[in-house]
Amino acid sequence: MSDALRKITIAPEFNVAVFSFLLNFVWEYIQAPTYAGMIELNHWDGIKLCTSATFGDVGFALTAFWGTSLVARSRQWICTPSAFQVLVFLAVGIALTVGFEYYYTNISLRWTYSELMPLVPPFGTGFSPLLQWIVVPLLVIWFTRRQIRGAGPDSSDLGSGSASLPT
């Protein structure tokens, strides 16, 4: 593998984006029945809508990653995350989810929930998108950590912060 490609593949943002895309893409399809009109869409329109939502999820994941990086003062926090860093990562994603779901379901009316979606007070946020921002990010952290540690020059160096990974 070339040095340039190796640098890209061990960048935390690259891995967060890739794993977030793959996991959220599956989640978007699984939760489709909880959004009004989704199961009635033709196949191609459903694919486009779920793909668009997935790109939004990736944006949330990267925003949460960078927010956590600011708090941690390192982009490498994801290699050995503390409980506090994981909570910050989840909190940023949940805050974005609540805000965007509220805007799109109550203000712009871009989408609505079906009768299958349980609502969580106080804003009436759908349970599925909230659960998505607990389950998927934890898996993203786990996969990203494993990927970066496995691709590094010496995975034992990552725990001490002395690896030659970009910060």
Descriptive key words:
globular, 6 helices, 66% helix, two-stranded antiparallel sheet, mainly alpha, single chain, disordered C terminus, 167 residues
Strand order of the largest sheet: 1-2
Distance between the termini: 21 Å
Q: Please report the number of helical segments.
A: 6
- Tell me the series of helices and strands, N- to C-terminal: HHHHEEHH
Q: Main sheet, how many strands, which sense, barrel? A: 2 strands, antiparallel
Radius of gyration: 18 Å
What is the residue-averaged pLDDT? 90
Q: Uncertain segments of ≥5 residues (pLDDT<50)?
A: 154-167
Portion in strands: under 5%
How much helicity do the residues have?
Answer: 55-70%
Structural class: mainly alpha
What's the shape?
Answer: globular
- Taken together, the total number of domains comes to 1
Number of strands: 2
Please provide a written account of the structure.
With 167 residues, this protein is mainly alpha-helical. It has one domain. It is 66% helix and 2% strand. The protein is built from six helices and two strands; from the N terminus they run H-H-H-H-E-E-H-H. The chain has helices spanning 3-9, 12-30, 43-72, 83-107, 127-151, 155-158; strands at residues 119-120, 125-126. The chain has a two-stranded antiparallel sheet with strand order 1-2. Strand 1 and strand 2 form a beta hairpin. Helix 2 packs antiparallel against helix 3, helix 2 packs antiparallel against helix 5 and helix 4 (83-107) runs antiparallel to helix 5. It is globular. Mean pLDDT is 90; it is low at 154-167.
